[in-house]
Amino acid sequence: MPVNRRTALRGGAVAAASAALAATARPAFAASSADPLKKIVAGYRELQTGINRPSPERSAALKNLGRVAKSYYDSMTVSGNGPLWTDLPLGPGSDYTTSMYARLRAIAVDWGTPGGTLSGDPKVLDGIKKALELIYASQYNPQVGEIGNWYTYEIGVPYYLLHTLVTVADQLTAEELARYVSPVKRFVGNPNLRANNPKVVETGANRADKALISIVSGALTGDTAWIRTGIDAITDVAGGGAASVLAKLDRAAGDGFHADGSFIQHDTIPYPGHYGIVLLTALAGTIHVTEDTEYALTDDLKQKVYALVGDTFAPFVYAGALMEPVRGRMLSRQGETAHDIGHQLTVATLVLARSANGTVKAELSGLAAKWIKEGTYAPFLEIPDPERFAPGPDLVATPGIEFAQDMLAGPVRPTPIVATHRIFGQQDRMVHVTEGWSASLGVGSTRISRYESINGMNLHGWHVGDGVLYLFLPNAKGHYSDAYWPTVDPALLPGTTAKAGPPGPLAGTPLTTKAHVGGVRWDARHGAYAMDFVSEDGSLSARKSWFFTPAGVVCLGAGITDTSGQAVRTTIENRNLGENGRGTLLADARVVGDSAALHRPRWLHLDRVGGYVLLDNAEVTALREDRIGAWRDVDTGANTKGTTTPNTRRYQKLVIEHGAKPVDAKYAYAVLPGASVVGTVASALSWRVRANTADVQALRLWDNTLLANFYSAGTVDEVSVSGPASVALGRDSLAVSDPTQLQDSVRVTVRRRTVEVPLKDTFGATKVVPLR
């Protein structure tokens, strides 16, 4: 398994001095030491090896870790000037340097962890020392130049190196520590700037990583000024706070956390599901290692960090996994499924809870307990294959198990599931949570990219931002983690309207030409979302709406027009049924075979998934097929590439056919997650479609609430608007948002009353206006 830039060995990080060595050598960085530098090193070591809390789960994880570490050690050669491993050649700018350090760290983890297979073995320690020298001399020293990805030199390798060094620090002289840290000093001496291009000011996760690297490096070498520089980098003291990782931006897009809870990296990519967690992990590590020292973060800063968990991350966690629309290109990584990154978030939260107090501690512990309890697809307390996923410095390993069990042994209550409908306008994302299922959308606009496909990743990402409706169901918690991305038909993602035929070349981070993307929140159980869609080549356009309710999602499309000549389809469903998956599909009470053209069906039902109601006269194609794909098909990155092992998964497709060159075509259907056959048939009483045109799409709920998306000035029922808007109207109040994020205000006339709703600088947020 190749090692990716942020992952190398799930079982670990680096190891603490073992119990055997502690009996013969006085630790230079003992946890009880009053020396703040020694406390930092001991604290960072603890994040790698944990707290030696015995349990069967810890023992099982260590056994699996030892198997991998021993295989690396047994195959390592430290004599002569050749490579440490024959499959990882030496050389300038080697693509294999990160993997070398990752394997060495794996050995160090096991050597330094009490109970590890290699724990305390003096021959292993000697091998680690010789490997450190060889790899320093040949691959990573102050004289090497950055060749290839800057990240390798400035973050990836420094982290792995520091993990190994804190493990064996007691066994190295001050001169040796300074020698091995010297290249880190060169590349991360100023964590505020990119070493290979000082004009680049570091932001977000990269800045937080470099801050923690500086703090630990300074502690190892006695460089207190470097420690302080790392602490100051968090709030960007040098830049007057402009790049502070804790600043809350109040605008659309832009790296960092935002006032509405959004998190962006690479300027236009919603990334709570990767870079945001990397950043949170670095902050959790910083708080942990500096606690009770003169370098500790202020209480105000710590409270800001604690608050991020519930505001930015928790809304997008389902069954312990991060939702796909906030994972960017990382969804294509074989070694970083949604559950893997969810484990990483869980451990970061556990680490933060250890330093928190009172209600904040209870809230953080409650969230972590909830994710552990619900994450049955990939149990948090089990690490069966350390080689499959490795979060590098990201705290998922034996320490995670120990911290979790320590927390669960106390009076903690898992946070209950609470119905939520939330719109994050500053990253063009939304989430709809019910007690039984959840949903989110993948969209793109003039502010947020359709997709990210860089560094050889997300190679089938053409349509992930074209209006994908992601559904998360309790009996299919592994749906998107189970080889979904290498096997799903990328041209038929649920919710999208797309053309048949070749998809064309991928761009890096393409924006669309349409600003109208966003919606309105009515209450915790209802909301509307709209997308003015245009294909990447500009030939296909459509107006698309989603209306969210407790029972399901009503999907409307209008103005579907295409000039390419290719067949145009809207995908209702493309469900991963697993390998050799089963499940009866009914159409109007009749069993559907593997392939069928359904003429104007009224409803469909897929066993163990839910129901689908067709709200207009649609021609539907139903197709059940086995699809084969390898992770290498979607990720060929130098340090992230997937395996070529073929995966076969069975899919159920439900597709509305619009034909070639449609003009103003439409669709209207409802998706009812978890619904029974009876519930599917009876759902028609839950809503009424009031409009479905290229100008306005609207739905009336059972209690007479109106949800409407206007693409221009217009009227539906008793509501008129002066311009584009998403509107929710109830008995006593009116909710309005501007999905274009371009207007100063919108004038709404309702029940013979006209109100001017100010929307300037609200960035898609909902404004509520009382009507009484």
Q: Give the spatial strand order of the biggest sheet.
A: 13-14-15-16-25-22-21-18-19
Euclidean distance between termini CA atoms = 63 Å
Number of helices: 16
What is the structural class? alpha+beta
Radius of gyration: 27 Å
The helical percent reads: 25-40%
Largest sheet, described in full? 9 strands, antiparallel
Inertia-based shape: globular
The number of E-state strands comes to 35
Roughly what is the average pLDDT, rounded to an integer? 93
Please indicate the percent range of residues in DSSP E strands (runs of 2 or more).
25-35%
Assembly form of the protein: single chain
Low-confidence regions? 1-27, 389-395
Structure explained in plain terms:
28% of the residues lie in helices and 25% in strands. It starts with 18 loop residues before the first helix and ends with a strand. It is α+β, with helices and mostly antiparallel strands and 772 residues long. The protein is globular and about 80 Å long. α3 (56-74) crosses α4, α7 (174-188) runs antiparallel to α8 (204-221) and α8 (204-221) runs parallel beside α10 (275-290). A nine-stranded antiparallel β-sheet has the order 13-14-15-16-25-22-21-18-19. β9 (429-433) and β10 form a beta hairpin. It is built from 16 helices and 35 strands.
In short:
With 772 residues, the chain is of the alpha+beta class. It is built from 16 helices and 35 strands. A hairpin with a 4-residue loop joins strand 8 (420-424) and strand 9 (429-433).
